[in-house]
Structure formats: structure tokens, C-alpha cells
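TASK: fixed-backbone design
INPUT:
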């Protein structure tokens, strides 16, 4: 518009032109400017709005050539599954040694909250027990000895008060049993589901449940084994004995029923179990259903050299890949609702940990689902449908 006014004004300053000539000149310039404006608008539209044929070219990579031009909606892109080599890179911590004959893999998690399926996230979908199973099975294919640990919170708070979460919890426990988890620490939400519910759905793996500070409220007797000793054979033939114990925070979620258990102070419980384990195993792992900062404070209160080699926090506080050293204890933490799985790589020397590397692995949808574990998701969804309960 400014340019137009300047052009209009130029002729008015020429005193050699008659008024009629000035008017004709201005009309010619006005028509020219209108033509230029229309041409620019058409060109801009052509650049910013791809033509139908351009859209079809973009979609041609995922459609047969004979169908190019027939696309009427957005093209759904199917993620390309990871190759075994890509999966290895995805699940291995940075700096993993090429010679793994003296290496032990610890797969760990916590705070699953009865989740089997991928999350409902739009931007970055993660999770799925069948994809997590692929991670575990791949480590076995690499001939790595694997120890699988649950730090607690696999059952959602008051899950049995909802039919949906009760069904999800049941099938999750069956999946963890099929994955052959070595130890499942009983967190406060898990204990609220009841010992009988846990045992029924874990089947013969019910003896993998541990807790050093959950007791019967009347007799004060332990409701679960206080620890478990796992024997592992490394690639170089070395036998390693691992003592694993677990505790939960004392805070218990509100329950519609009176709890059938009591939670003791975790500090004296940890000290007592460590004394029992020392001399009977090569190193000790503590599973703690508490968040990372609470576990840090607990380890600090235990004092220097508490006799624990690795501590795993089960209650989610954030995504942390690093290993923190607290009074000589290597501390890590699990994921959130099955969207991640921890992979702790331990280099062993003379039965002791000489080096530790860690990675909290995202359960990406490009990880191929393991066919032997997909039925846990379909069985869960079928039972929900049959009971005519909406999925929350």
C-alpha cells in the first residue's frame, strides 16, 4: 500500500503533465499493482499448499506404485522394527565391554501399577509386557546370565477395589511369572492386594516374594521370605551367589479395608537381614519400594559401609540413568508403568563387583513384541470385554 501511494504521488509532483494525463497514468499503475498482487497470492498458495499429486508422492513409499494418486487421507506410517543389532545397541549401557565372559546382567523394574499395555501417549508411546519380554529374551540369546528383579509397586494402589485393575493385576502377575522373575519385593500397594492374591496368580513363583519389614499384625511373624539367594554361573564358569532382600516404605495408601499386615521400620530390618546374608553370598542387592531420594536418605542413615552392594528404588520419582554412590552402595531406580526397564551390567572379579554400568531402557514400539508373551495382553482385554467392564 505504501508503494502504491508513492507511485500515485510521483505523477502529482510533475508539473508538465495535464490533470487528465495524470489520472490515466495513475489508473494504469493501479491496474498493474492489482495484477502483481494477484500473481503473488497465487504463487504463495502454490508454495505453502502442496498439490494433491504432491501428497500422493509422499505416500508412495508405503503404498504400491499402482495405487499412487488414490490416497484420500493421511498416510499411516508403520514403525520399522528394530533389527537384533539395533536392539543390542538400544538395551546395552554405554561402555559395555566387548568381552562379557565375566559380566552379569541385572534386569530390574518397579512401579508398574498393574500396567501390561503400552501407554496411551500420543507423541511417544512406550511400554508393553510383550516388548519388555523381547529385551529379556535378547539378553539370553547373547549368552548373558540374567537376574530379573522387581523392586515393588507392580500392583496399583487398591487395585482390587476396581474390577478393571484386578483383572490387569492378575494377568501382569502371570506374565512376570512366565518371565521367570527371580525376586519380587512386596511394596505397600502389593501387600494391599493380599498375600493370597499374589500367590494365586504367581503360582509356583510365589516363593520369589520377599520382604524384610512386612509382618503379621498379630504375631509379628514375617509374611514373606526375608531374602533369597540366587546362584548364577558366569560365561567364564565362575559361580556367583547373590543375596537379595527387600523392604517397603512405611506409608500405606488408604484402603477400604483394614490392612492384614504391618510395616516395620525398614532400617533395623535391613541391618538384621544383611547380618544374616553376609558370609553366605558374594554380594547383596537391596530392593526398596521407596523413591530415589528416600532410599538415599535410608542408605545414609545406615552409615558407612552398610554391607549392601546395589540398591534399587522401586517407587518412581523420575527417569534416571546414572548410578549414584551412597556410602559405597551403587544406587539405581526403576521406571514408570512398564514404559522402561532397567539394565544394570555388572563386571565381576573374584566374586565381587569391579565395574557397574546402567541404562534405563525405553520400551519403544519398534522393539518387536515377543510372540510368547503377547497373549497376556489379549487375555487381559478379552476378560475385560467378557465382564463388560469399561477400560479406565
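OUTPUT:
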Amino acid at each position: 500500500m505504501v508503494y502504491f501511494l508513492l507511485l500515485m504521488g510521483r505523477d502529482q509532483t510533475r508539473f508538465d503533465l495535464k490533470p487528465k494525463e495524470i489520472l490515466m497514468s495513475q489508473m494504469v499503475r493501479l491496474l498493474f499493482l492489482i495484477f502483481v498482487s494477484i500473481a503473488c497470492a497465487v504463487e504463495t498458495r502454490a508454495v505453502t499448499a502442496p498439490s494433491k499429486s504432491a501428497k500422493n508422492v509422499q505416500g508412495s513409499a508405503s503404498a504400491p506404485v499402482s495405487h499412487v494418486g488414490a490416497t484420500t487421507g493421511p498416510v499411516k506410517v508403520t514403525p520399522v522394527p528394530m533389527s537384533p543389532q539395533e536392539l543390542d545397541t538400544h538395551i546395552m549401557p554405554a561402555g559395555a565391554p566387548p568381552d562379557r565372559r565375566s559380566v552379569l546382567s541385572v534386569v530390574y523394574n518397579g512401579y508398574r501399577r498393574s500396567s501390561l499395555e503400552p501407554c496411551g501417549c500420543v507423541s511417544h508411546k512406550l511400554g508393553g509386557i510383550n516388548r519388555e519380554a523381547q529385551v529379556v529374551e535378547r539378553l539370553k540369546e547373547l549368552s548373558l546370565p540374567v537376574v530379573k528383579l522387581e523392586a515393588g509397586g507392580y500392583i496399583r494402589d487398591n487395585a482390587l477395589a476396581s474390577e478393571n485393575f484386578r483383572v490387569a493385576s492378575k494377568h501382569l502377575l502371570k506374565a512376570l511369572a512366565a518371565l521367570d522373575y527371580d525376586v519380587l519385593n512386596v511394596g505397600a500397594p502389593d501387600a494391599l492386594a493380599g498375600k493370597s492374591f499374589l500367590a494365586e496368580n504367581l503360582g509356583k513363583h510365589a516363593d520369589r516374594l520377599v520382604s524384610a519389614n512386612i509382618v503379621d499384625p498379630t504375631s509379628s511373624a514375617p509374611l514373606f521370605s526375608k531374602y533369597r539367594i540366587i546362584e548364577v554361573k558366569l560365561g567364564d564358569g565362575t559361580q556367583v551367589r547373590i543375596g537379595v532382600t527387600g523392604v517397603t516404605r512405611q506409608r500405606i495408601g488408604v484402603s477400604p479395608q483394614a490392612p492384614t499386615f504391618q510395616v516395620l521400620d525398614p532400617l533395623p530390618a535391613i541391618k538384621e537381614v544383611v547380618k544374616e546374608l553376609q558370609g553366605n553370598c558374594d554380594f547383596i542387592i537391596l530392593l526398596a519400594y521407596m523413591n530415589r531420594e528416600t532410599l538415599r536418605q535410608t542408605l545414609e542413615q545406615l552409615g558407612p559401609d552398610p554391607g549392601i552392594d546395589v540398591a534399587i528404588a522401586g517407587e518412581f520419582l523420575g527417569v534416571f540413568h546414572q548410578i549414584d554412590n551412597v556410602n559405597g552402595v551403587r544406587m539405581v531406580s526403576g521406571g514408570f508403568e512398564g514404559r522402561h526397564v532397567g539394565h544394570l551390567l555388572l563386571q565381576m572379579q573374584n566374586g565381587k563387583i569391579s565395574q557397574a554400568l546402567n541404562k534405563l531402557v525405553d520400551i519403544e514400539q519398534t522393539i518387536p513384541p515377543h510372540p510368547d508373551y503377547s497373549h497376556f495382553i489379549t487375555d487381559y482385554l478379552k476378560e475385560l470385554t467378557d465382564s463388560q467392564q469399561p477400560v479406565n
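COMMENT: The first strand starts at residue 103 and ends at 109.
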